[in-house]
Amino acid sequence: MATALGLGLFLALPGPGLAKQVREVFGDLGLLPEVAQPEQNPATPAKVALGQQLFFDPRLSGDGKLACVSCHVPALGWADGRATGVGAGGQKLSRNVPTVLNSAYYAGFFHDGRASSLEEQALGPLLNPLEMNADPQQVVRTLAGIPEYRKRFREAFGEEPSLEGVAKALAAFERTLVSKDSAFDRWLQGEDAALSPQAKRGLEVFTGKADCTACHKGPNFSDGEYHNIGVPGSGTTDMGRFDVTRNPEDRGAFKTPSLRNVALTAPYMHDGSMKTLREAVKHYEEVSMDFPNLDPLIENWGMTEEEIDDVVAFLESLTGKPVNLQPPRLPD
Fold it and tell me: What would the pLDDT profile of 178-212 be if each residue is shown by its tens digit?
C-alpha cells in the first residue's frame, strides 16, 4: 500500500520519475492522455464548431427553451449546481446532472451507463420527454429550415441535417471539453509547491488508509464501473444500473464519477443529496455495512476528522484549468 511507503520517497524524485512512481504505486493515477478519436466520428473543425452551436441552441428542444447548456453550464463546472436536473416545463428530475468535462475519457454514460458512446448519450436528453422533449423529425425540420445550419452540416458531413449528424457534432464538441493542468498534475510534473502539505497528506490517505483508488483510479480518477456505495434510496427509490442490465448484483449501483474538477460540481452523489465535498467524503465513514447490496469494496475506514479534511484538500487540488466558452453566435 502507498501508506507503507510514504510520500517522502516520491517528493525526492525529479518530475518524470515522480509521475512514473505515482502512477505505479498510487492506483495508476497520472496525467490525462490525449483524447482518442472514434473511427466512425473523428473530430474536424467543422464538426466541433457545429456541435458547439447545437450545444447552445434551445431551438432543438421541444418548446424551444432548453439547450444542452441549460444543464451543463460552463461557469458551474459544466454541471448545473442543483441537486437534481430540471427538465421540460420546469419539472424536477430524479438524478443529479453530471459534468461533461473530461467525458471523452468514459466508456459508459449517464449514472447508470445506459449509453455506450458520447454520440448515443448526446441524443438521450434531447429526445427524453422529461428533459428536452424534442421530436426527432421536428429537430431535423428545424435545422433544415435554417440556411446556415444546412451549410454547416454539408461542410461537416457532406449531407443535409440529420439526427445522426446532430449526435456526431455534439459528441465531437464534447470531446474538446477537457480540463487538465490541475495542481496535482503540476505536482506530478515536478512542481513540489503545487500541492499543499495538507493535500499531500490527503493523497496519502486517499491512496492508502481510505483505499479510494479501489474505484477512483487511473488518470481520470474513475474505474468506469458501477458500485452501490450505500447512498440512501439506492436500490429502492432508484435502481441504478439494474434498470439497464437486470442483474441483481447491479441493484442500486451507479457509475464511478471522475474526481477531476469535483470541487466545482456540488452537490454530490447520483441524487445530489450531499451538499458539500466534505459530506461526500464523510459518507464512507457513516454508511452502514448492512446496507442492501453494498459493494464489497466499501468499508468504514476509520478516517479522523483531520484526515477527512486532508482528503478534501487533495480533491480540491484536482481542479484543472477552467473551460469557459463564450456562447457562439447562433444562425438566424
Answer: 999 999 999 999 899 999 999 999 999 999 999 99
State yes or no: pLDDT of 9 exceeds 80.
no
Asked if residue 208 lies in contact with residue 202, where contact means CB atoms within 8 angstroms, the answer is no
Using alpha carbons, select from 93, 47, 59 the residue that is nearest to residue 238: 93
Q: Residue 94 in 3-state DSSP?
A: coil
**Catalytic residue set:** 131
Cα–Cα distance measured from residue 43 to residue 48, given in angstroms and rounded to the nearest whole number: 7
- Give the pLDDT of residue 324: 86
CA–CA gap between residue 284 and residue 263 (Å, rounded): 18
What are the grid coordinates assigned to 102, written together?
473530461
207 CB-contact burial (10 Å; exposed 0-12 / middle 13-18 / buried 19+): buried
pTM (2 d.p.): 0.92
Q: Residue 13 carries which side chain, given as an amino acid letter?
A: L
Rounded Cα distance, 233 and 274, in Å: 13
β 254-255/226-227 pair status: antiparallel
Provide the sign of the torsion angle of the four alpha carbons 51, 57, 59, 61, taken in this order: positive
Share of the chain above pLDDT 70, in %: 92
| Bridge partner list, 73 | 79
Q: Rounded to whole angstroms, how far apart are CA atoms 65 and 72?
A: 14
Q: Are 32 and 259 in contact (CB under 8 A)?
A: no
Contact 259, 216 (CB under 8 A): yes
The amino acid at 241 = R
Type of residue found at 35? V
Cell 458531413 sits on residue: 157
Confirm if 209 and 320 have CB atoms less than 8 A apart: no
Q: Give the chain's length.
A: 332
